[in-house]
Amino acid sequence: MRSSPGEAVSILKNDHKTIRAWAMYDWANSAYALVIVFAIFPAYYNEITAVNGNSTIQIFGWSIVNTAAYSINLGLAFGIVALISPLLSSIADYNGNHRAFMKFFCYMGALGCMSLFFFSDPKDVHLALLGMLFATVGYSGSIVFYNAYLPAIATEDRQDKVSARGYAFGYIGATTLLILNLAFILNREALGVEDGTLLPRLSFLLTGLWWLGFAQIPFRVLPKGLYAPKPKGKNLLNGYMELLKIWTLLKEQRRLRTFLFSFFFYIMGVQTVMFMASSFGDKEIHLSITQLIITVLLLEYIGIGGAFLFAWISKKIGNVRALMIAVTAWIFICAGAFFIITPLHFYIVAFFIGTVMGGIQSLSRSTYAKMMPETGNNAGYFSFYDVCEKTAMMCGLIMFGTLDNLTGSMRNSIFALALWFAIGLILLWMVLRIKPSTQPLPA
What we know:
By secondary structure, the protein is mainly alpha-helical. The protein has helices at residues 16-49, 66-94, 98-115, 125-148, 150-153, 156-186, 198-221, 238-250, 254-285, 289-317, 319-337, 343-371, 378-407, 410-433, and strands at 56-59, 62-65. It has a two-stranded antiparallel sheet with strand order 1-2.
């Protein structure tokens, strides 16, 4: 068992005001993912850093392709998150002021977004990459504490519904801000704006202000902490020891261990494609920012339908076989992306990405939950799952950027991802051939 945190603070559960305030943090920070990561910033970054058709930039005296630097920078951000996540989990368990840490990472991320407003010259690429790194670490770090509030504010029978409300708030808030930014960008001439960089840069500033402003709602309502402070005997390394313990237990759980290896390889491909799709569309297909924003919005809607589709498939043939279908589709997507030439080709591939991206993520988490042994340590197992995912994202993005830099083409990087999906598919097939363990493990 994980060592006990301090005494739980008395919090009224299923309180509508508290739940609404909690969900508003999703409304606040989801704008970062949609505006900064998936839609506007990648294309803007490519445009600013490509001078006279030359996409090579200088980073501390090192020549590197602009999109490669962007990908590697994102990978490093998620590597930092993977490294500090266990420490953050320990702090969440033992420190009596969860809200303060959530604020710290929120402000770090929002300020990182706002700093991108000052990126208008290729010589300032260091500022852009540093701002992106802080925004990513802030986003992921704050989520650790945000998620920790869920079991404290809702009873177990309501947690799925409350979690879904958070996702719904996030989706509505992010798309609202993205559509607002799109309206400004499309009407630049009508607004009398001559500087072509001003409106995209304002969208970065607005994203940070949106995140910072709406986050004040949960910060005013959520309780200061979940546990009373426990300064004596507190072990901040407990999160790392917990990961080591789960790794030891997995040696006795061959089926779950094989699934996690499979998950590591295919989620590496999934997340890398999702994070780099906009950069690919801009650089290789020369899509405009407007076309990319519309594509991202369509992906969001298609993704919802895709999640329900794969939920239906899993009921018919089982989770692992449904995942095998999704991973196979990803292999074809990566292979097909190599041959994309026209915007229509990109839209077709984007449609298939939208169909499988939501389903594979939701199915992966539920499949893992079903395979977990009954140890009474669900939090420890999911912490391991989260670190596994973040580490995979780091490896995928750094590998993608390295190949892009070595070969000079993102097409080669996308095609190479098919190999990781293939490894994941083979390991899923092996999962099917391993009989489930019927012996519970010690807690």
